[in-house]
Specification:
Cytochrome Bc1 Complex, Chain A, domain 1, 7-stranded mixed β-sheet, metallopeptidase activity, Peptidase_M16, metal ion binding, 40% helix, 6-stranded mixed β-sheet, hydrolase
């Protein structure tokens, strides 16, 4: 079954006999079937699973799985599984070259999100999410998909066109992070195909691809008895099955020698080191020097992968494993917070690509001394291997597990069909089953008696025993150590660190003092939309409340306060970035970070925080039972903030370690700098560099944020499945008890896009010499009065994106995924921009800038065609229709509405603005904003 703990299995705790019959996914398992699924097998061997699901309404999600990925390739075929994925979308029986993307867009599906595919080492999955289904749409969907899968057309021109696109994708993923992933894979899976089988392939094999070579891989693996089709959506399951039979029932697959597909390849197994110590089998090790990356020490305890019997007992064992790991990770985090030698460390267990069963340990040192950090982490683990955990520790993690498994039960009606379909494809991939949330929770509850100190110790010890232990050190300096040093660190004896165990204590909300004297509601009125209520408290706090059952079991809370970036002094810019990371961790009153964790035990509570242009925002997804306490946490942060130094110091260390990595590729430099550069160099939007971080201090952090937390109006938005009267009372006790707020300072904040200065602004990166990035931005506008124009500019951006995609990817293969977007700040009078970005080869930058200039000129000169309009308005219409069935859509559109009631009238026009527009209107917008002499250009090129 797929991915515990999100899916662990079964509803009925009683163990029953494993079935040799029944649905194909459950054969050999005693996990009760999720009865919402209908399983079957066609005479040609194609397996299917279908179910009715109405989230979102009107959508059908189709997943077509081919049980073959990069591990199925021969050496000359490396990259072909992924290349076929591309070619399948290019040319097939019912979709000729260049027709696939427009065809799916006309059906309302957005390319890249609603229509996509993924290739992994073990499978290839085609993904379609089709909105606003009708019988005709279903027929067309299955017809087009059947042609893609069963009858793609491989031509010389298709291969020659698509290979450069795949190579562009390879370039965009290149850089130190990819080298680290590939290098670590080579060490951890030495001697196995997985060690060298990245799905992207190699330049040599891709450039050698021909239609015949590609077809040979397709003939071998794209066969009905090696495929699964999964459909979940708002349609009759029998109607879905009928279409599967109609369009895939005649599929036979290519004729092969012997008449059968090849046997699945042997993925090998980890091998013990020759002459090593069986009790401590430390094997391969590698030091990887990457000047732009922080130090990280990784090691893996590896065991052979084997097919499991996905039974109730097996899943109970998984739960004990995860309990032991959770205890270790909590101890590791506690030691790091209290001043350990590492910034962070974690342990996880994975069954990887049917190649190994692994326990993975990751250590990020706080300083250059990675050996001390590794020793400290190993000491925490050694303690977990030497002595059973306490009953209190187990009880704490069991409470966490309980809420993790119970929340899906409470919210299962909100599970999207796309997620449910992917659960099946994941299960097929790992050779396990699926179970509904009730089943998962049932088996968890039945497992609680098994969570004894002795059983947790036994399972933890098993997790750290293996065939071989392999390690990698990522470091900016070759002087940090050798491979022999890595082995020595792992072989060195360590004394168990019992000090890492967290002291047993309890803390609950009833132990906390009240925020203050509860306030009273002074006004409550209908907002005139969907039953949403606008409330004002006596202290000036305002709220939007919408109690509804659209998403059972879920409540969304957003708290907007203060003035955001606009009120932060530019001289204090470093504290903006540190605030996003550390502010919530500093606690409140007498409650520190560890106390916050204890309060959250067994609860669905969160403390997310981010900064917007003109407000600060605290966010949480919670449930009705925890809503009052969630409100207390947020209100207490404003009323009685705490100023622990440790979270700030850790945030500084993390930011310092991460900063150099931003120089590692063209994309990372662009991502780091584009936001503040497009604000004309405003430092508040910049990522602080190490020199700026070094000047920051906990005292400075307190000075800045203690003032900011007191300023400006407060709006609390609560949408979801909650009880109105109880929530109003909780608001009165929490936000209603806040003291009067300080006024916001006048800032005159009006950011602007910089004026063009001739040649593009040029920045450099330290990564691969064959990669670059480019950006073109035109200033637009800002302000709520321009809302309709802002929405229409987004449609213009999508038309522009389709043309740029065709010019840069399809015609010259220079870029894998160029992006065009429009940004229009509704709460600022200026600062909006229309921008095109891409990654490409340095030599293709000229072509990119020329293409953007030409497209901008053409759009201003000639209106887009009716088909171009349809290709962007239909997917946008469907996207809005689907999104508007959930509370998150309305909360995003209406945020600030407690103080700005015009938001409620503006939302009524959203569908019309995005789905009804004349070509001449888009031409007018292009003529108004895409002006050649206002275009600001930036490029990121390799450094010397």
């Amino acid at each position: 079954m797929a991915k515990a703990p999100a899916k662990v299995p079964t509803k009925t705790p009683a163990v029953r006999a494993a079935s040799a019959a029944g649905p194909w996914l459950y054969r050999g398992s005693d996990v009760p079937q999720d009865k919402a699924w209908v399983f079957g097998v066609l005479p040609n061997g194609l397996r299917y699973a279908v179910r009715r699901n109405g989230v979102p309404p009107g959508q059908v999600s189709v997943r077509m799985l081919i049980d073959a990925g990069s591990l199925y390739e021969t050496d000359p075929q490396r990259g072909y599984a992924h290349l076929i994925e591309h070619l399948t979308f290019r040319d097939s029986k019912y979709l000729k070259a260049g027709e696939a993307i427009p065809a799916w867009q006309r059906l309302g599906a957005t390319f890249g999100s609603d229509t996509n595919a993924e290739t992994s080492p073990t499978q290839t999955v085609y993904k379609l999410d089709i909105p606003d289904v009708s019988p005709a749409k279903l027929d067309e969907t299955f017809r087009l998909l059947s042609g893609m899968i069963t009858a793609p057309i491989f031509t010389d021109i298709g291969v020659k066109t698509e290979v450069p696109i795949v190579l562009a994708e390879m370039r965009e993923r290149s850089g130190p992070q990819t080298r680290i992933v590939d290098g670590t894979r080579a060490v951890f899976f030495a001697g196995q195909p997985l060690g060298s089988r990245s799905p992207i392939g190699t330049e040599e094999t891709l450039n050698a691809a021909t239609p015949a070579k590609v077809k040979a891989f397709h003939d071998a693996w794209y066969r009905p008895d090696n495929a699964v089709i999964v459909v979940a959506g708002d349609a009759d399951p029998q109607a879905l099955i009928a279409r599967i039979k109609q369009w895939f029932g005649a599929w036979k697959g290519a004729k092969l020698p012997g008449g059968k597909r090849p046997p699945h390849p042997d993925f090998g197994a980890p091998k013990a080191p020759v002459g090593g110590d069986p009790a401590n089998p430390v094997g391969e090790a590698k030091v990887m020097v990457e000047p732009d990356l922080p130090r990280v020490f990784n090691y893996a305890v590896l065991r052979p992968w084997h097919q499991v019997h996905d039974t109730i007992v097996y899943n109970q064992g998984l739960m004990i494993d995860r309990l032991g790991i959770a205890i270790i990770n909590r101890r590791l985090e506690g030691r790091a917070r209290s001043g350990g030698s590492y910034l962070s460390a974690s342990v996880e267990s994975q069954r990887i690509s049917r190649s190994a069963d692994a326990t993975l340990v990751t250590v990020t040192p706080l300083t250059d001394d990675w050996k001390a950090a590794a020793k400290d982490v190993r000491a925490v683990i050694a303690d977990a291997l030497a002595t059973p955990p306490s009953e209190e520790e187990i009880a704490r993690e069991v409470a966490e597990f309980d809420v993790a498994f119970k929340v899906p039960v409470e919210t299962q009606e909100t599970l999207a069909g796309s997620k449910l379909a992917e659960d099946i494809t994941d299960a097929v991939d790992i050779r396990e089953t699926v179970a509904n949330p009730d089943t998962v929770y049932g088996i968890f509850r039945s497992s609680i008696p098994l969570f004894t100190p002795a059983s947790v110790l036994e399972h933890t010890r098993a997790l750290f025993k293996g065939t071989v232990v392999r390690s990698v050190l990522i470091t900016p300096s070759a002087a940090d150590g050798t491979e022999a040093d890595l082995r020595s660190v792992l072989l060195a004896p360590v004394a168990p660190s019992s000090g890492s165990r967290l002291a047993a204590s309890s803390l609950s909300f009833k132990d906390l003092p009240p925020i203050g004297e509860p306030g009273k509601i002074v006004s409550a009125e209908s907002a005139g939309l969907l039953g949403i209520e606008r409330i004002e408290l006596a202290n000036g706090v305002r709220a939007l409340l919408w109690s509804n059952d659209a998403e059972p079991g879920r409540v969304i809370v957003r708290v907007h306060f203060g003035g955001g970036y606009a009120v932060i002094d530019p001289r204090d810019a470093v504290y903006a970035s540190l605030g996003e990371t550390a502010l919530m961790d500093t606690g409140f009153g007498n409650v520190g970070r560890e106390d916050l964790d204890r309060l959250a035990t067994g609860r669905k509570l969160s403390l997310d925080f981010d900064i917007q242009d003109t407000s600060f925002k605290m966010s949480a997804d919670t449930r009705s039972a925890d809503l009052a306490d969630q409100l207390y946490l947020f209100a207490a942060k404003l009323a009685v903030p705490r100023w622990d130094a440790n979270p700030v110091v850790r945030a500084q260390a993390a930011a310092r370690l991460a900063y150099e990595a931003t120089n590692a590729s063209a994309a990372s430099v662009l991502q780091r700098d584009v936001r503040w550069l497009l604000k004309d160099g405003d430092p508040r939007y910049a990522l602080p560099n190490p020199a700026e971080l070094a000047k920051a201090s906990p005292d400075g952090f307190r000075r800045v944020w203690s003032a900011l937390l007191k300023q400006g109006p407060v709006e609390v938005d609560i949408f979801g499945d909650f009880k109105r009267e109880e929530t109003v009372a909780a608001l009165e006790r929490t936000f209603g008890a806040l003291p009067a707020r300080d006024p916001l300072p006048a800032t005159g904040f009006a950011p602007r896009v910089p004026a063009p200065v001739g040649d593009p602004l040029t920045l450099t990166h330290h990564g691969d010499a064959n990669t670059a990035a480019g950006l073109v931005a035109w200033p637009t506008g800002g302000g709520n009065a321009g809302l309709h124009e802002a929405r229409q500019l987004e449609l213009l951006a999508q038309v522009f994106n389709n043309r740029l995609f065709d010019a840069m990817r399809e015609k010259i293969g220079a870029s894998y995924a160029p992006q065009v977007s429009s940004t229009w700040p509704l709460d600022l009078p200026s600062g909006g921009y229309f921008a095109a970005t891409t990654q490409l080869r340095p030599g293709d930058l000229t072509a990119f800038f020329a293409a953007t200039d030409k497209i901008a000129t053409d759009l201003a000169t000639t209106p887009p065609t009716a088909d171009e309009i349809a290709r962007v308005t239909e997917p946008m219409k469907q996207l809005i229709t689907r999104a508007s069935t959930g509370n998150g859509f309305y909360m995003f559109q209406l945020e600030g509405g407690a103080f700005a009631p015009e938001k409620f009238s503006q939302i009524r026009s959203i569908l019309a603005d995005y789905s009804q527009i004349a070509p001449e209107r888009l031409q007018l917008l292009a003529r108004r904003y895409l002006v050649a002499d206002k275009a600001w250009r930036m490029q990121v090129v390799p450094g010397k």
